[in-house]
Amino acid sequence: MAEIDIDREASRVGEQMEQTAAQARERFAQVGSVTGRAESADGSIRVEVAPGGLLTDVRITHAALRAGTDAVAQQIVDLANRATRRAGDRMYRALSPVLGPGSDRQLASLGYEPLPDDEDEPRYPGAAR
Amino acid sequence: MTETAQVMRTALDLPDQFAGKLRTDDAAIDGAVGGQAALRTSLDGVQGSVGGQRVALASRSSGHATDLATSTSESLEREVETLLNESREIEDAVTEAAEALKIGQIENDRIREEIIREISNTMKAVAAARQTPPVPTGGQAAVRELMVSLQRKIGELTGQAADTSAETLGKLTGIAGKLGGSESTTASSAGGSTQVASSFNAQGSGSGGGGGSGGGGGYSGGAVTKPRLPVAIPPQPGTGVKINLPNGKTVEAPNETAAKAVRAALSQLGVPYVWGGTARGVGLDCSGLTMTSYGEAGLEIPRIAKTQTVGAEVPSIDQLLPGDLVVWSGHVAMVIGDGQMIEAGDPVQIGPIRTDNAGQQFIGFYRPTG
After folding, report:
1. Which of the listed residues A2, B54, B115, B198 has the most CB atoms within 10 Å of its CB?
2. What total number of domains does chain B contain?
3. Which residues of chain B neighbour A51 with C-beta distances below 8 Å?
4. A8 touching B (Cβ < 8 Å)
5. Nearest CB to B125: which of A25, A28, A103?
6. Does some domain include residue B28?
């Protein structure tokens, strides 16, 4: 029967954790921002979220208010959802190379899934939309 | 201890306990199997030489003393054969048990390795998530989610390990239970020949009379000698007590006590076999079934199968009546009528009356109610 040396296994995992942390740090530096952003077609409402969906910035112009409070509210929600998916896409692209091919399910469970390429979305920090 | 080591120790605690239960001393098991094989070989030798001596004895002058010597030698030969069969049973049981343990160990090891793999994968993801900008808060939600998911996974795997452990121990109980039917395994083979000599002298004229003769004297493992009991006589017409059997037939027991004992035994159909069991409805072994069933009828009979040779002896199979006991050196069954008997195999079941039982010595038919 195999004897399991917990200390040895634990320190092996510890080493892997350090390696992974270093790789992740590098990758996040390359990717830049991992926040998700979305804005309405006329740019009158802009939303930014952290990975996972927490709103970090909302901007509304007076022009937007012309559409009425219900419309504004709904738009904010829709934009927040879109922004969250984009943040998830950024996190996926940041971490998938670091955690390896078997990590897709794990990343999906955190809400980090790649967006299909045809969805119109900015990939580089500072790009429009 | 690092956080990871802590998580690992906690997660592996239960599976490690199971591993401890399943731990085998392979050398000891090999030794036990080897010992049984050696015993069997030497018993084979004894059987051969005893048989040879008997033939030599009988071929010399015949006479009362020689007849006794011959029949005592026959008993010894039968006893040796019983020991031989039991030795084979034990050897098989040990091998089967070792196999069940091995399978349990392998499965438990697999689960422990999977637990470690899950921990490893999760902690790597945690390390990466912690780097989410802005550090250190950016990855908190993700880290929380990862740890919750890990706890759930470990719970599932621990459950699997518990199932494996329970299944293995269940198998071992089953193997032991099968062995338990041969109760004379407690008989020591040492002193067998001495026992023969003394019974040879004591049974001089052969009519030992009541008292604790055969039943009492058979203990320390010598030949199982039949007690001298009165012969059972068939009941007078009209004195019997009717019983309805599960197959729809109606049979007649010789008296109310026997009828009650049969009904009590029938009520235990389907009860699981448990070695040493006397818990009605829960777990019974062969002599437990017959003893407790007669107990329900108000008649006390001994605990051990081969000593349930009480009351009167039924001289032949065609005179068997409901309630009569069929007794072997390590097993006992109760006749219920219609050519059937009930016994605690696994579970308690009905079957046709027979006189062979796994190579054991058949002792005889007995009517406890006399």
Report:
1. B115
2. 2
3. 132, 138, 141-142
4. no
5. A103
6. yes
